[in-house]
Amino acid sequence: MIALDACVLVRYLAQDDPGQSARATEFIEAELSAEHPGFLSQVALLELHWVLHRCYGQGRADWSRTLRGLLTARQIVVENLPAAWNAMLAYDEGMDFAEALLAATAHTAGAHALATFDPALARHPHVRLLA
After folding, report:
1. Which of 6, 25, 97, 101 is most buried, by the most CB atoms less than 10 A from its CB?
2. Looking at domain 2-129, does it have CATH number 3.40.50?
3. Quick one: average pLDDT of 25-37?
């Protein structure tokens, strides 16, 4: 297994740099497989979301499609897959992706709640507002 940096996935998905995009495509499509997968950490996943949203203007529906593709790709192992799925579902319901992943990760780790001072975040399951 080899870990994937967000920039490799950005080049693969955006196809915006002829040299790097071609190399990323070759690497992902020819070198990664179910037997030799790429590892996508939660940090890289958050970075990828941030770059695609902020730098490339990717909206919610596009990110949901991108994320579903990553979570179901046989050649990619996603760190804490249950949390990533739960974050995607919460994101689909309107939650910020980083906050959704934070809350889902805390929940899958056994935390009964995520403590916050953010009233908007506290509307979601497994989040507790500290008043």
Report:
1. 101
2. yes
3. 97
Is 44 in contact with 5 (CB distance < 8 Å)? Answer: yes
DSSP state for residue 37 in the 8-state scheme = P
pLDDT band at 123 (very low <50, low <70, confident <90, very high): confident
The long-range contacts involving 29-33, CB below 8 angstroms and separated by at least 24 positions, are 32/2, 32/75, 32/76, 33/74, 33/75
Residue spans per domain, the chain: 2-129
Query: Which residue, 77, 78, 84, 91, is CA-closest to 107?
Result: 84
pLDDT tens track for 43-71: 999 999 999 999 999 999 999 999 999 99
Tokens found for residue 12: 């693969």
Cα–Cα dist 6/48, whole Å? 5
